[in-house]
């Protein structure tokens, strides 16, 4: 076989083999890479769909629970009154609640009343049958008060349904029916789902319950991905098939570029093949001279496209053949490098990602043209780009960026990924994800060159932040919700060095407003209170809605004075709300993390107890009924007047505040001022109201009122925390008091304060068995009994308070 034929045969086989290998590698690397990206996109589309449907279900669940646990709805199931129907069961209600129907079922699952908008009877019957299945499955738990929410597919429509047992607002009455609310996935919602998931979503009904729930089935055509997955309906049966059609943009674009590249590639290889044969034929007779000239020409011109072929089968032809093959291989290699470089540039241009080549030794940075245009770099050389690049890092991330790069340079890891913000030349702020590798090190192992790719992930971050906000925010007030606060508490509990306060608040009168004026007015109250809190609290304070009428404020790294001042401001702000027919107030309690209370649950428990104690002295609170009842009994039996009780309460509170007592102690002091003599309700009236001096036996009975009051307080959970003070308020500082003869600091501080204030009020006001003393007498008596009957420090502070009142009166 001639050299020409051999060369032609070898070239043709090499051409075909090289094409086959190139196609195989392209398929393995490029198309599988695109397929992985598409699979990730399909999973994201399904997750987005699930998130939207779950959000719709939760909103519907809240609405059904609100209606089904409403006393008016419970009563309606007995008498089907027209007032309820006219007020609530009209088509406008469906529009306001974004519902397709509302159905009331009696205990036998028969329709009691319905308002069904445009829902057809056959669709409604299917829905009721499936809801009946739910109730059958709850046979062993008929008193469940939560709502069952989910989807139902009927007559080519996907319905979102919520079914809840009807009961009273306190959830104690046995259910007398079922409330069913639902809407179908209409065109607007479908458009939103399609736009958000970037897919065309459709639904189908499936028979039986034998399908896999979580597996996604994917099939591909040239221009579309068809994915499907079945999901459970409200009966927990896998009866709904979700199908998505997603355009294969990346695949189509890849095919286009590969066709162009393949055509050029084959043409180039074919031209090389033809050129080799022409050279062999043309220069077959020019042996030594041609060989020498060829080698010299190649050396001088560095033109690797030249070819030399010498006929024959001797050493010269072999040298010529070897030389030509060598030059050809150089040409192919050079062409491959150019093509790889061109392919890389095309990919970078298509994605607009940044390619960074950092030379740490020379402080030089190469950045591809697309990324420079995207961020607006102005430096002309790589040294300038080095400094300009780092100047574009957002100020908030400079320290973070520096620390991460320091870790990259000091660790042995070869690859890294960091996320940070950058500022474009236009002033726009974007999120950037940078992935890179250390590609070279010096003799000591220190990195000298880093290659990385930067990607704009602003849209992804925005979407993640939006989802996070919806997950951790209260829909009515815009405050953080309970889930967010529980996450914060988990973080705090892991950090043993953290320092914080928790304030717990409960709006007084919300149930009264809901019952009397409706839930919209109640929502308005919660909204107004939350706005006042947001205006008063510092930006660093975390304010959240804990439950219906309860709020939580988390305050980190602050002093107690700030917390108590904040509580005062919030109370004053709530008292000033005038948009309601009844006065508005809020009960507040706080607690601090300290050495004894080291976890958030304990701190919360203490704050809650103090809040409920505060409710005892709040006139607008229902818990005040305990205090009011005891005081009414005392005033009816004893000559003690309500004015005397309020004087003790107010004066002791002012004295406590002057002494710097914390808010929780001031709350206890107010309550003690009201109830310190509550034990007198157990003293016989002939002794209690006797105008003359008591006998020794009668005095023993009279003194027992402290022990009676102690037992009353101890047996009342809401008052047990002041029981010791009630017992000790007649103890004397020198130890001669009763009932236990306590002395000095052994006597509870609040009892010592009440002793001073009560004695002063008794001296300066008229009683049935004595006349009032003037102010100067009472002051001298306090001074005389200081250190014997009274705590000298408390007497000193009380006298200063009287002097201030005297100056203000003048």
From TrEMBL:
Residue intervals of the HD-GYP domain: 619-810
Start and end residues of each PAS domain: 340-412
Residue ranges of the TM segments: 7-30, 260-280
Gene3D superfamilies in UniProt: 3.30.70.270, Hypothetical protein af1432 (1.10.3210.10), PAS domain (3.30.450.20)
Origin: domain of life: Bacteria
Swiss-Prot/TrEMBL keywords: Membrane, Transmembrane, Transmembrane helix
Pfam families recorded: CHASE4, GGDEF, HD_5, PAS_3
PROSITE patterns with a match to the protein in the record: GGDEF (PS50887), HD_GYP (PS51832), PAC (PS50113), PAS (PS50112)
Domain GGDEF residues, every copy: 498-631
Ranges of residues in domain PAC: 416-469
Name of protein: Diguanylate cyclase
């Amino acid at each position: 076989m001639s050299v020409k034929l051999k060369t032609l045969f070898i070239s043709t086989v090499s051409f075909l083999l090289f094409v086959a290998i190139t196609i195989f590698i392209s398929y393995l690397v490029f198309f599988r890479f695109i397929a992985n990206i598409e699979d990730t996109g399909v999973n994201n589309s399904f997750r987005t769909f699930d998130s939207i449907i779950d959000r719709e279900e939760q909103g519907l669940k809240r609405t059904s629970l609100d209606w089904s646990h409403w006393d008016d709805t419970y009563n309606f199931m007995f008498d089907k009154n027209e007032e309820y129907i006219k007020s609530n069961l009209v088509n406008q209600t469906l529009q306001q609640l974004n519902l397709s129907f509302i159905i009331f079922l009696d205990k036998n699952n028969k329709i009691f009343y319905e308002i069904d908008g445009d829902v057809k009877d056959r669709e409604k019957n299917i829905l009721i049958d499936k809801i009946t299945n739910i109730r059958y499955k709850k046979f062993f738990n008929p008193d469940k008060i939560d709502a069952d929410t989910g989807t139902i597919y009927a007559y080519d429509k996907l319905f979102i349904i919520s079914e809840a047992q009807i009961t009273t607002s306190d959830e104690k009455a046995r259910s007398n029916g079922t409330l069913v609310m639902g809407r179908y996935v209409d065109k607007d919602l479908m458009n939103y789902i399609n736009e958000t998931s970037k897919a065309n979503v459709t639904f189908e009904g499936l028979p039986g319950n034998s399908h896999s729930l979580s597996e996604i089935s994917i099939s591909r055509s040239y221009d579309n991905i068809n994915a499907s997955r079945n999901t459970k309906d409200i009966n927990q049966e896998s009866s709904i098939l979700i199908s998505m059609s997603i355009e294969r943009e990346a695949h189509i674009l890849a095919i286009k570029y590969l066709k162009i590249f393949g055509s050029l590639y084959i043409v180039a290889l074919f031209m090389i093949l033809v050129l080799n044969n022409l050279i062999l034929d043309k220069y077959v007779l020019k042996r030594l001279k041609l060989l020498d000239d060829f080698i010299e020409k190649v050396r001088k011109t560095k033109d690797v496209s030249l070819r030399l072929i010498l006929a024959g089968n001797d050493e010269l032809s072999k040298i010529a053949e070897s030389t030509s093959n060598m030059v050809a291989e150089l040409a192919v290699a050079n062409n491959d490098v150019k093509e790889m470089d061109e392919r890389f540039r095309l990919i970078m241009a298509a994605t607009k990602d940044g390619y960074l080549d950092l030379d740490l030794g020379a402080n030089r940075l190469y950045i591809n043209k697309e990324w420079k245009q995207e961020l607006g770099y102005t430096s002309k050389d790589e040294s300038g780009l080095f400094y300009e690049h780092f100047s574009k890092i957002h100020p908030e991330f400079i320290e973070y960026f520096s620390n991460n790069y320091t870790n990259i340079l000091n660790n042995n890891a070869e690859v890294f990924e960091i996320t940070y913000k950058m500022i474009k030349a236009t002033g726009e702020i974007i999120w950037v994800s940078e992935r890179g590798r250390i590609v070279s090190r010096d003799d000591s192992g220190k990195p000298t060159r880093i290659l990385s790719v930067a990607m704009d992930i602003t849209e992804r971050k925005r979407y993640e932040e939006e989802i996070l906000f919806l997950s951790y925010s209260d829909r009515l007030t815009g405050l953080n919700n309970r889930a967010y606060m529980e996450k914060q508490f988990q973080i705090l509990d892991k950090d043993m060095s953290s320092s914080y306060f928790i304030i717990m608040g409960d709006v007084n009168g919300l149930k009264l407003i809901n019952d009397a004026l409706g839930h919209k007015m109640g929502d308005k109250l919660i909204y107004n209170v939350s706005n006042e809190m947001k205006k008063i609290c510092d930006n660093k304070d975390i304010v959240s809605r804990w439950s219906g009428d309860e709020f939580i404020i988390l305050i980190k790294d602050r002093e107690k004075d700030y917390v108590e001042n904040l509580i005062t401001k919030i109370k004053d702000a709530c008292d000033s709300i005038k948009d309601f027919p009844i006065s508005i107030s809020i009960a507040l309690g706080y607690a601090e993390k300290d050495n004894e209370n080291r976890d958030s649950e304990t701190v919360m428990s203490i704050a809650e107890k103090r809040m409920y104690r505060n409710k005892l002295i709040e006139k607008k609170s229902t818990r005040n009924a305990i205090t009011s009842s005891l005081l009414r009994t005392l005033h009816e039996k004893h000559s003690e007047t309500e004015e005397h009780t309020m004087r003790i309460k107010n004066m002791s509170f002012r004295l406590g505040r002057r002494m710097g007592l914390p808010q929780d102690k001031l709350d206890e002091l107010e309550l003690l001022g009201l109830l310190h003599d509550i034990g007198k309700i157990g003293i016989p009236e002939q002794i209690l109201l006797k105008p003359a001096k008591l006998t020794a036996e009668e005095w023993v009975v009279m003194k027992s009122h402290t022990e009676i009051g102690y037992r009353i307080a101890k047996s009342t959970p809401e008052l047990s925390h002041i029981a010791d003070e009630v017992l000790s308020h007649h103890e004397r500082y020198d130890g001669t008091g009763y009932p236990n003869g306590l002395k000095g600091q052994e006597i509870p501080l609040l009892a010592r304060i009440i002793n001073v204030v009560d004695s002063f009020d008794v001296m300066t006001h008229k009683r049935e068995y004595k006349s009032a003393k003037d102010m100067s007498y009472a002051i001298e008596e306090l001074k005389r009994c200081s250190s014997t009957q009274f705590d000298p420090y408390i007497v000193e502070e009380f006298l200063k308070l009287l002097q201030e009142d005297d100056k203000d009166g003048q």
